[in-house]
Amino acid sequence: xxxxxxxxxxxxxxxxxxxxxx
Length: 22
Fold this sequence. Notes:
Elements: H1 3-17
């Protein structure tokens, strides 16, 4: 299992849930 891929997926998911708010 790739930790990097999991981290990126988690980050993208969080951004999507927040509507990519900056």
